[in-house]
UniProtKB/TrEMBL annotation:
Alphabetically ordered keywords of this record: Disulfide bond, FAD, Flavoprotein, NAD, NADP, Oxidoreductase, Redox-active center
Cysteines paired by S-S bonds: C134-C137
Residues given in the record as FAD binding sites: 3-18, 267-277
Listed name of the protein: Alkyl hydroperoxide reductase subunit F
Gene: ahpF
Residue numbers of the full-length protein present here: 211 to 520 of 529
Cofactor: FAD
Protein source organism: Marilutibacter penaei
Amino acid sequence: PFDVLVVGGGPAGAAAAIYAARKGIRTGVAAERFGGQVLDTMAIENFISVPHTEGPKLAAALEQHVREYDVDVMNLQRATGLVPAREPGGLVEVTLENGATLKSKTVILSTGARWRQMGVPGEDQYRNKGVAYCPHCDGPLFKGKRVAVIGGGNSGVEAAIDLAGIVAHVTLVEFDDKLRADEVLQRKLRSLSNVDIVLSGQTTEVLGDGQKVTGLSYKDRVGGDLHRVELEGVFVQIGLLPNTEWLKGTLELSPRGEIVIDDRGATSLPGVFAAGDATTVPYKQIVIAMGAGSTAALGAFDHLIRHSAP
Ligand code: FAD
């Protein structure tokens, strides 16, 4: 069995694996797609000490760094179940889609998350070419330009306020007939002179010239007419879904499905830790996921030295 088995190979999982392996303990990583969301990213400009990199390059560097150590990397492996230890200090089991079972004294869950998509024409085609999901990451790329934010919940309204300070103009489009964000955020949003708010707006298409985004069309759900806005960017803020469906019923999840962790990365199950976008950690970012992965690995190591037979 492993001492530490990491499930997920994004920034959180890679950091956890390196921190665990550096303790000289048996470490494995099972990942559906090593690199995680980073693989889907183009420019990364907030990975501190690296002013500019690209997703696939960072993903390759993550894997290369992990492979510097004696880590059993199991790529293209999807976990489908978690079986808690039968007795205190016992082995935790992770079942894989291929039918195999991996056993470990501790497990670190770092299966990340995915942005909910609008599912309209143009969204996929112009992803990273004007269609963005992360204002902290991509906001500065739209300095002085016009953007839309899709979604009027807390994350959409926060994004619109954030972007309004960087870009020339923001159009916020909400499907419902009212914003769902906290009142204090709504008040702040309404005070901004370069923001238009569209309610009852159903996005129908992201428009482009073949290379990049040039506009957005939406339907007025009350009057039924179609509108077109000329702009350069669309930030989709309709939800971040944690990849934790396979864990339902085995450990504590938040109402949003995030794995509930404490400040050492421990979950509600003894010996099971978690890190990164799949958890309740506030703010989902690469550097934050890496820090959290390191925390979870040190938490797991601490657990091992307290609970393993000498
Ligand atoms: P992820 O990167 O999501 O990795 C999850 C891992 O778990 C993957 O290996 C996945 O295959 C695996 N996995 C999932 N389910 C299972 C399963 N059942 N069994 C086995 N493995 C599984 N952040 C920044 O800091 N700067 C940026 O510029 C930036 N730009 C972004 C641009 C885009 C388009 C996107 C989508 C995100 C961006 N982010 C950016 C956010 C950043 O990518 C995430 O915060 C970060 O990758 C989270 O790391 P993670 O390890 O928690 O999860």
